[in-house]
Backbone:
């Protein structure tokens, strides 16, 4: 395997991995707050869910970019 | 569909004499959503009916009994008796239960006390002197406690140096020995000094005061008593269980009946009231209004006054969603989030259209669809109370099977030539997903346009929502010009872009400008339709490959292959269901709803209905 292919794979891995970490950090904070709010008022489940999943878009973008990078290897 | 049930505001007023009849009729009609009156200079809130205090007292007793007997949430067919009968039966049950619980309490007290004396008796067991010896004396002192076994000889020797008047009892306990030393009171100080030198640790006995005879005998007696009481405790528990079984139906029925009566008795707290009259404000669905008023007038012998009118523009109308039976289960998602206000579009029908599609694209495997369909059909039968939720998932599973055909997948295998292959044609699927996103977001914008049109007029709708569509047009034209797909000057696209920004600034202010990039991220967010699906496929393929390797080895390995296949796909289905559900929901809540939905209305909850 050429060294370029390896570098592309690493780059692609970083794109998805780092964005996943970012999403996880963001979701951690929101999730704890949302669960806390839900313990006080159960009706907040819907809103809590939405706020919690908002950062998920980050990792989706990460995946799209990772696939774009992987495509360079072809 | 799209619009909630039309409501009319109602005012019912009459003299206090008619109040109870009106309440009874309203409660049985289960049609009016009462608006609570807040105390004002004109009228106070009403006073509960006379029997409210008595009712709540009995209800509290019934609930306490239910809690003590471990009865909760029972549904019952038993008809409740009259209130005095409930009261007397409840008292009788409480009395019987009281006798049992008192005895239980006494037994528990004794048992916990006997723990301490048992511990002391265990220590004294090896010494054959009667317990009453450990009293207080004038001429005699005694020490009880532990020293090392091998020090006993030296202890005796030391003591004999000062006096012969002592008695030493001992019982070995491993390396330690328990000793009880009785000595002349005059030599107490000396003995104490000697003991200290030998690292004596003292033990005192407080729980066995007043007991007679040897420790061993007392211990035996205590054991016997404890086993007897434990047995008795079991008997009492059984009796309580029997009591619970006997009165389960009665308690559940009374709880329900009294709850209803109390709701009626306390209804005047929601009314406006003067010393001699009452006034009820509320909402009734417009379809039922004439029928309801007739019934009310009949019940009150035409001695009340009822006024009604259609909802006015700024009224806070309770919302009763109105959807055809097939879309009705999807109202669940609005209950979870927020009820749309009276004058905006009810998005239930759109969720019904798109939720199963998004779910289907993400799970998108015929095998998985069939498995989840079977699972949800089974669960729906098992849990009828959450029928709506499972109906949603059943529909979504059906669509999953269809998309399984579209993607040509069966448990990760491509069993036929697909329209789009999720595994091999990622980019095709990505464009497909984003196209769906663009359509969905624009439907949202159109709905938003209609909402604004209704509430703020045409110009505002153009500025606030039309601007986004112009913005998209601008971006599209720029992109087309950039890639030379159509040969136009990029300035045309830029002009559209500039125009949309100006419109947005007028429509939504600076806040709108900050939101500008959101339209792109919103549409891009639909890439998850591809992403979640892709991860699901890849996992399935990996499971198949792993299992395939074992199948090739043959023999015993086939079994391992089967296990991998089953657990792997089971986990993947679980992940796929969770991901498909949450992400589909999220696309609606975040990307779709943010374009038009305000919500925040109160749900229509008619007086007398159970939630």
Residues:
């Amino acid at each position: 395997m050429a060294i370029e292919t390896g570098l592309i794979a690493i780059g692609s891995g970083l794109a998805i991995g780092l964005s996943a970490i970012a999403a996880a950090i963001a979701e951690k904070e929101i999730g704890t707050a949302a669960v806390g709010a839900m313990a006080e008022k159960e009706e907040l489940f819907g809103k809590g869910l939405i706020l919690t999943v908002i950062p998920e878009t980050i990792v989706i973008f990460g995946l799209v970019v990772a696939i774009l990078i992987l495509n360079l290897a072809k | 569909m799209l619009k909630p049930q039309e409501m009319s505001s109602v005012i019912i007023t009459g003299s206090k004499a008619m109040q109870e009849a009106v309440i009874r009729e309203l409660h049985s009609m289960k049609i009016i959503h009462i608006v609570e009156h807040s105390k004002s200079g004109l009228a106070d809130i009403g006073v509960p009916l006379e029997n409210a205090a008595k009712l709540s007292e009995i209800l509290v007793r019934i609930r306490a009994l239910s809690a003590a007997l471990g009865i909760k949430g029972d549904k019952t067919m038993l008809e409740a008796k009259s209130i005095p009968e409930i009261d007397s039966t409840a008292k009788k049950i409480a009395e019987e239960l009281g006798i049992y619980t008192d005895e239980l309490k006494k037994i528990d007290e004794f048992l916990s006390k006997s723990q301490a004396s048992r511990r002391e008796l265990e220590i004294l067991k090896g010494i054959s002197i009667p317990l009453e010896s450990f009293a207080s004396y004038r001429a005699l002192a005694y020490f009880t406690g532990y020293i090392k076994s091998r020090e006993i000889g030296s202890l005796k020797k030391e003591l004999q140096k000062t006096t012969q008047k002592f008695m030493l009892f001992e019982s070995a306990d491993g390396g330690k020995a328990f000793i009880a030393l009785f000595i002349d009171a005059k030599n107490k100080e000396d003995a104490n000094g000697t003991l200290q030198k030998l690292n004596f640790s003292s033990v005192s006995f407080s729980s066995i005061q007043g007991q007679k005879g040897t420790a061993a005998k007392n211990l035996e007696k205590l054991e016997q008593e404890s086993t007897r009481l434990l047995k008795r405790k079991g008997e009492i528990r059984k009796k309580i269980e029997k009591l619970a079984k006997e009165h389960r139906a009665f308690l559940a029925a009374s709880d329900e009946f009294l709850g209803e009566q109390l709701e009626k008795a306390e209804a005047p707290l929601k009314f406006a009231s003067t010393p001699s009259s009452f006034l009820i404000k509320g909402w009734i669905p417009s379809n039922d209004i004439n029928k309801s008023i007739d019934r009310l007038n009949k019940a009150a012998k035409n001695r009340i006054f009822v006024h009604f009118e259609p909802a006015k523009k700024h009224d806070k109308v309770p919302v009763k969603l109105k959807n055809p039976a097939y879309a009705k289960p999807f109202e669940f998602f609005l209950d979870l989030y927020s009820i749309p206000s009276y004058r905006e579009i009810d998005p239930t029908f759109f969720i019904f259209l798109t939720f199963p599609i998004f779910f289907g694209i993400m799970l998108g495997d015929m095998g998985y669809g069939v498995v989840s369909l079977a699972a949800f059909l089974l669960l729906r039968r098992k849990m009828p109370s959450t029928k709506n939720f499972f109906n949603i998932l059943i529909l979504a599973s059906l669509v999953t099977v269809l998309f399984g055909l579209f993607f040509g997948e069966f448990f990760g295998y491509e069993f036929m030539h697909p329209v789009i292959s999720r595994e091999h044609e990622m980019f095709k699927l990505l464009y497909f997903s984003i196209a769906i996103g663009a359509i969905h977001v624009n439907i949202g914008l159109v709905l938003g346009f209609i909402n604004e049109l209704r509430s703020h007029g045409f110009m505002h709708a153009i500025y606030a929502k039309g601007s986004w569509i112009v913005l998209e047009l601008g971006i599209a034209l720029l992109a087309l010009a950039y890639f030379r797909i159509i040969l136009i000057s990029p300035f045309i696209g830029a002009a559209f872009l500039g125009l949309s920004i100006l419109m947005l600034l007028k429509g939504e202010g600076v806040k709108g400008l900050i939101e500008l990039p959101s339209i792109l991220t919103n549409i891009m967010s639909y890439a998850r339709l591809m992403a979640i699906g892709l991860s699901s496929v890849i996992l399935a393929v990996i499971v198949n490959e792993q299992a395939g390797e074992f199948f090739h080895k043959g023999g015993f390995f086939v079994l391992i292959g089967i296990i991998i296949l089953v657990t792997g796909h089971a986990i993947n289905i679980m992940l796929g269901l969770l991901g498909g559900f949450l992400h589909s929901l999220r696309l609606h809540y975040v990307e779709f709803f943010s374009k038009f939905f305000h919500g925040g209305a109160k749900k229509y909850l008619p007086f007398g209905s159970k939630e």
